[in-house]
């Protein structure tokens, strides 16, 4: 079944669905937009694309010689690229909570990375504050802030519609039996779960996002795209257009390179194409001059596909390909490798092109940034600071950029504090605190704690003041949540030991692709 036919067959999608689902009231009279002077009267549209685990050095404009990302490279050239953007947490669920709520992990309700821990019922999010002022709000991808039948489901936190995965274990498969829309299941034809099927879930998710944008072109909208690729099972149809960019690459032809590594690169290039599709649609609809678009990763890179030769992973996600300098650690770690993320923002006519900023900020800063941009009212008690002056310039915002006194993280038994170029970290409970000067030592190899005891004491005190006991949300029933987690494999079963990678690369024939992955359309 072709993608468009499938979407029509669902009977619940398309412009009519989104016109109904996003029928929020007009902005209340008190909601004064804080868009800079000279901006259009209509508040700007917002598109926030977050690629799951795409690392800082896995983009070709950062010097990666193996992965092709021409549209993201062009977006960076047409907007602003940040060199010191950091995740709110080094793993999936907590960082999504920090992004949505503007709270750091010492105050966040979601600190476990178990896939289903929910937001509390009363918590406001980016979507809820924007919905209050008349925005249409849609999310497409992986939620991670509360499973079904919990206080954290997205439709209870400001989203008119959320389509994709609520649970992150569910999100590991690109061929699950179903996806979720506003807590209800949407079957995906021909999918048993696991690593094979007829309906590639990411294509359906992207189509729904594009439908949402089209349906809301005449009103302000917030389109949140926490897309799953390239994370999860490394599967991509053999006829995806991304493969064409690798046709002449010798490393792709090398039989010693794992097929999953080849698939991973193609998945990143597929994401690159998706970014281009969104930007092209905005241009087609005449919206690009009044739409701010963010592209970013979620947490620091993971050293995937390691070998004796590639000890930091085949693609070197945390290694500068131009200098060889490596960030310490990776996903799950509070060293730089677990926190540094790509972050690009484009808004023609508002954000000067070709800028590179070294402003230090992290994901809790996104909510207050969007609140200031739109005139929405941010919740009390958040930890983030707006970075709007850095994006648009102090002349446009009538103020200079404020900077954090310090940034705070906690994850399991790790704690870290960043103050300007100083970083203090306690790598595990009861371990001595370490201190690094990131200007002189970005790889965090030289612990200078003994030379700066007063500074260490100050940062430890800040850490102590930043933590309160966690208060997560609750479930009324876990039955459907557990069903979603099992849908990762569906009716299939993983092999008892290691599973042979599914060959979805250039060597597969078109008939094989159609038999195993349907016949997905391009773009």
Question: What would you note in describing this structure?
Answer:
It is a single chain. By secondary structure, this protein is α/β, with parallel strands linked by helices. It is built from 15 helices and 16 strands. The chain has helices at residues 3-10, 15-21, 70-78, 92-101, 126-131, 201-215, 250-253, 259-284, 336-339, 366-374, 388-392, 394-397, 453-466, 479-486, 510-517; strands at residues 45-51, 80-82, 85-86, 136-142, 161-165, 178-181, 184-187, 221-225, 291-297, 343-346, 355-357, 361-362, 407-411, 414-419, 422-426, 434-437. The longest helix is centred in the middle third of the chain and has 26 residues, at 259-284. It is globular and about 60 Å long. The two termini are 16 Å apart.
Average of pLDDT? 90
Helical segment count = 15
* Domain module tally: 1
Q: Assembly type of the shown chains?
A: single chain
Summary keywords:
523 residues, Alkaline Phosphatase, subunit A, ten-stranded mixed β-sheet, 15 helices, 16 strands, 26% helix
Could you write a compact summary of the structure shown?
This protein is an alpha/beta fold and 523 residues long.
Would you spell out the secondary-structure blueprint of this structure?
Layout: H1 3-10, H2 15-21, E1 45-51, H3 70-78, E2 80-82, E3 85-86, H4 92-101, H5 126-131, E4 136-142, E5 161-165, E6 178-181, E7 184-187, H6 201-215, E8 221-225, H7 250-253, H8 259-284, E9 291-297, H9 336-339, E10 343-346, E11 355-357, E12 361-362, H10 366-374, H11 388-392, H12 394-397, E13 407-411, E14 414-419, E15 422-426, E16 434-437, H13 453-466, H14 479-486, H15 510-517
Parallel strand pairs: 1-8, 1-9, 2-11, 3-12, 4-5, 4-8
Antiparallel strand pairs: 2-10, 5-6, 6-7, 9-10, 13-14, 14-15, 15-16
């Amino acid at each position: 079944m072709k993608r468009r036919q499938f979407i029509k067959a669902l009977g619940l999608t398309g412009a009519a669905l989104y016109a109904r689902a996003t029928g929020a009231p007009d902005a209340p009279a008190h909601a004064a937009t804080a868009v800079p002077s000279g901006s259009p009267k209509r508040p700007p549209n917002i598109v926030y694309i977050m690629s799951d685990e795409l690392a800082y050095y896995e983009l070709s404009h950062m010097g990666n010689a193996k992965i092709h990302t021409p549209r993201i490279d062009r977006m960076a050239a047409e907007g602003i690229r940040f060199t010191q953007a950091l995740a709110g947490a080094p793993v999936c669920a907590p960082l999504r909570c920090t992004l949505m709520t503007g709270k750091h992990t010492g105050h966040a309700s979601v600190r476990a990375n178990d896939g289903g821990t929910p937001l509390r019922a009363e918590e406001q999010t980016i979507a809820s504050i924007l919905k209050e002022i008349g925005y249409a709000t849609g999310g497409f991808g992986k939620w991670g802030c509360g499973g079904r039948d919990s206080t954290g489901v997205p439709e209870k936190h400001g989203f008119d519609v959320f389509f994709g995965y609520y649970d992150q274990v569910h999100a590991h498969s690109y061929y699950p039996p179903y996806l979720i829309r506003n807590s209800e299941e949407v079957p995906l034809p021909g999918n048993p779960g696991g690593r094979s099927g007829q309906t590639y879930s990411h294509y359906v998710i992207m189509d729904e996002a594009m439908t949402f944008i089209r349906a809301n072109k005449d009103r302000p909208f917030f389109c949140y795209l926490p897309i799953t690729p390239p994370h999860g099972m490394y599967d991509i149809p053999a006829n995806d257009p991304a493969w064409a960019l690798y046709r002449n690459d010798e490393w792709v032809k090398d039989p010693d390179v794992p097929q999953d590594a080849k698939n991973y690169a193609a998945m990143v290039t597929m994401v690159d194409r998706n970014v281009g599709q969104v930007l092209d649609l905005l241009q087609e609809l005449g919206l690009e001059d009044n739409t701010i678009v963010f592209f970013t990763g979620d947490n620091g890179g993971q050293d995937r596909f390691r070998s004796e030769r590639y000890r930091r992973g085949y693609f070197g996600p945390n290694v500068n390909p131009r200098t060889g300098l490596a960030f310490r650690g990776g996903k799950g770690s509070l060293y730089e490798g677990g926190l540094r993320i790509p972050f690009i923002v484009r808004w023609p006519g508002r954000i000067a092109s070709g800028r590179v900023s070294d402003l230090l900020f992290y994901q809790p800063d996104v909510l207050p940034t969007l609140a200031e941009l739109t005139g929405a009212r941010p919740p009390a008690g958040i930890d983030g600071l707006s970075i709007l002056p850095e994006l648009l310039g102090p002349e446009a915002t009538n103020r200079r950029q404020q900077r954090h006194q310090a940034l705070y993280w906690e994850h399991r038994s790790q704690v870290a504090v960043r103050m300007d170029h100083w970083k203090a970290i306690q790598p595990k409970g009861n371990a001595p605190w370490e201190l690094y000067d990131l200007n002189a030592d970005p790889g965090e190899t030289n612990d200078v704690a003994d030379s700066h005891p007063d500074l260490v004491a100050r940062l430890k005190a800040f850490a102590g003041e930043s933590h309160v006991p966690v208060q997560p949300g609750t479930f009324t029933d876990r039955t459907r949540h557990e069903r979603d987690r099992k849908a990762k494999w569906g009716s299939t079963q993983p092999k008892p030991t290691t599973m042979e990678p599914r060959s979805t690369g250039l060597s597969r024939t078109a008939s094989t692709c159609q038999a195993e992955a349907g016949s997905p359309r391009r773009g």
